[in-house]
Amino acid sequence: MDIRNLYSLFRECSRVATDSRAIEGGEMFFGLKGENFDGNEYALKALEKGARYAVVDEGTAATSSGDDRVVPVPDTLQALQALARHHRENTLVDGHPITVIGLTGTNGKTTTKELITRVLSMKYKVTSTQGNLNNDIGVPLSVLSIGDDSEIAVIEMGASHPDDIEKLVKVCEPDYGLITNVGRAHLLGFGSFEGVKRAKGKLYDYLAAHGGKAFVNVDDPDLTAMAAERWPVGPVIPYGIDHWGAIVLPSSAEHPYLRMAIPPVPEPLVPVPELVEGPEVRLAHQPDQGETLLEVETHLAGAYNATNVAAAIAVGLRFGVTLEEAIEAVESYIPKNNRSQMEKTERNILIKDAYNANPTSMTAALANLGMVEAERKVALLGDMRELGYESLSEHVKILDKVLSMRLDLVCLVGEEFGKALNGSIPESVKWFPTSDDLASWLGDNPVSGATVLVKGSRGIQMERTLPEL
Q1: Is residue 362 one of the residues assigned to a domain?
Q2: With contact defined as beta carbons under 8 Å apart, do 172 and 143 qualify?
Q3: Do residue 310 and residue 378 come from a single domain?
Q4: Which helix (H) or strand (E) holds 253?
Q5: pTM, 2 dp
């Protein structure tokens, strides 16, 4: 079917759905196929439940049903992505296509996306990726959720393979882009750290080829070098804690959340070419003696979130949100889903960062735990997955790091940490095959009066230990 005709049908619908169980009435259902499912088989059921149309692959059973609400296409996923791109190009604000900000990175994507959305919402009607719908299905669904009243869209893009970002930018066609960082994650898919940089850098490549602009954390030498490769002179909007002369304030049991102090005018004063002439990144703004800094009190756990906050403020300033409004928005944001959450229980202070883990984020989380002022510190760490042949060496590095911190208790979960221990378990370390095993042990050996970091890859399910803390 021609994309314009498919789009005309889409405009009759309430929304797009890919799960027949979620049909409420009026949707355009897409029968997508996966390794373990075939949505084409549920197309007629979706129509029975109230879907307005069902888009299916040609030649499937639904196409011979005689129901004129069945829309056959050569490939449902490609049709979904093409429909999203067409919607992006035909959603207008003041006669011009809506502004789209594309976001990717190894760590902090979702938190940064939420912060940017909160800041921009001080002035605009914003549509952004819900949850972590950031893959080849989630991105088109996010784009198709952009309403007629939206003024800016913030689209998160995830990647675990070399060509993922290259494909996703062609769906959302960003005008602005931001890479939070590049780190050692999904090495099984990317092959190496250089592979990570090439894959994430496809966002910069798209912006450079299409006249877009990038927000770049110029405190980060990898991002600065990546930007300089694409824009020797060009439309880069720099930001950064050091670049602004901002300060990350120390945390304590009384003030466990991230706190920052920001100059009253954190403007992007220095273009990237001046920053990459030598190995050192010089400060763009050094506060005068006696200059009053503006304090930001967040609900985020971890100093590593300071750059995510800076990114959100930089985006807000670019789009006319005042610094005071941006700070108000950041301070009102409360994280969820075990992402940089701080929780005080009856017995402990928990740093819940159990949604995912890789060597970069694990190192940052441990560094933050090391800076926290607390009488007793505990780390509950689960395996970091998808690291390929580097998995053992990366787990050994984390083990060495955590042992050097001399924590009161370290509990490790999973096969990879078991390999790193290699049968030699120090007195202060406990190892468990699963998070359920650790939870059971904690039930018999309660931890009290401690600041506890809980972190691991999603598949390890470290959140299962939380009720025992």
Answers
A1: yes
A2: yes
A3: no
A4: none
A5: 0.83
